[in-house]
Amino acid sequence: MSKRKFARFGAVITTLVAAGALISTMVASSGAYFTATQPGAITGNLGTVAVGVSGTAINFANLMPGETQTQTVSVRNTGTGNEDIYLAFDNTNKAWSAVNDLGQYGKFTVNGVVYDNLNNRYAQGTPGSGVMSTNDTSGCYNIPRNAIAYLPHVIKLGTLTPGQLWSFDVSFQINPCMTGGQGGTLW
Q1: Which neighbouring-strand residues pair with 81?
Q2: Which helix (H) or strand (E) is 74 found in, with range?
Q3: Which contacts qualify for 35-38: CB closer than 8 Å, 24 or more apart?
Q4: 149 by DSSP, 3-state: which?
Q5: Which residues, other chains included, contact 165 with Cβ-Cβ below 8 Å and sequence gap of 6+?
Q6: CA distance 96 to 91
Q7: What is the DSSP string of 130-144?
Q8: Contact 96, 58 (CB under 8 A)
Q9: pLDDT: is 2 or 115 the higher one?
């Protein structure tokens, strides 16, 4: 390469470096500050959590072995946001405990889920063992015991959107082979 071409090439490189330095100096030192004021307002309101329920007094009257009684409960989300809906059993009057002491002599169905071995003395899902009765004169003779499926204290039924109305059924049946308790109160 000739000295002349080398000098021109060097001049171009020097010019580019100088231009880059000038641009970076301009960018670094020309920070602009803008100020402005504009009147404004922040507003907001709180959403609501509310449900309307009808049919909360579930009363199974004159229960007879083998007959199913069903009660319907309706719930409406009257709030402004989605609501998780639960069925919770208040055990103040010991009704929930009494139901769960029936073992396979009672069957509770909530929203289509069957709890047919109501025995809270064992963990949920404990496999069934043996038969309900080995007495050949019993109506429960040789009927196998199901896995434990006691009625939980709290059951999540679903989520309702604002304004949504939903009804669900609660059913109860005393096993047809139950022989005691007629004419009395279960709980």
Answers
A1: none
A2: strand 68-77
A3: none
A4: strand
A5: 74, 75, 76
A6: 5
A7: SBSB--TTSTTBTPB
A8: no
A9: 115
